[in-house]
Specification:
By secondary structure, the chain is an alpha/beta fold. About 45% of the residues lie in helices and about 15% in strands. The chain has helices at about 5-15, 30-40, 80-85, 105-125, 155-175, 200-210, 225-245, and strands spanning about 20-25, 45-50, 70, 90-95, 135-140, 180-185, 215-220.
Amino acid sequence: MTHADGNAQLRMRLERFQGRTVAVTGASGSLGQALLRQLHRCGAQLIALTSSSNALTVLSAEGQPIPLEQVRWRCGEEQDLQPLLSRCDVLVVNHGLNSHGDRSPAAVERSLEINALSSWRLLELFASLEPREQQREIWINTSEAEIQAAVSPLYEISKRLVGQLLSLRSLDLAGPQLRIRRLVLGPFRSALNPIGLMSADFVAGEILRQVSWNCGLVIVTPNPLTYLLMPISTLSRWLYFRAVSRP
């Protein structure tokens, strides 16, 4: 099968994105832009959510700017996005911060706010919106730092927190009106990790490929252990929370 044939089949499997509105946070980052490119190829109407005040231009594979609506926002102001998110069919929560070796109180606060609490608030907000005729979806990028070292303690702590919150709240929020997908990604090249092993475009393509298979747990990493440990960790956590908590 040629590369072109593979792309054609992928587009056919993702026909459900045709004309649907997709919002992506962290849109100015490497993965955010790669996801916008892939979703544009699938016919989605795009909203780029970014903290940057600079105009965002994302080029297609042919080198042409893709049409998108850019919206500036800041963590802590999630509620202000309600009117915009009410227009969305899919929300991709992709923003993040890596403090690397910094363990100062300020770094702790930033990491928890951006990597965990902001994602949790967006999940709650999106789940509270009025139902649409077609099921909404939210994809949350937690990273394989949920279960493995990332040589960045605060990144690991905050990603594990959002992973735990996602498992807990999925018990009540996931259902016919909302499909929750967890993105567990290995090291890819970006401003947060310039020496990542994978390209952002490859990761974005694999994310959409697994979404086309209707995977709730989307794993893209060169580390084979993650494919074994992450499903076990997610399932055991889900069973534990279900047994010891109540709606």
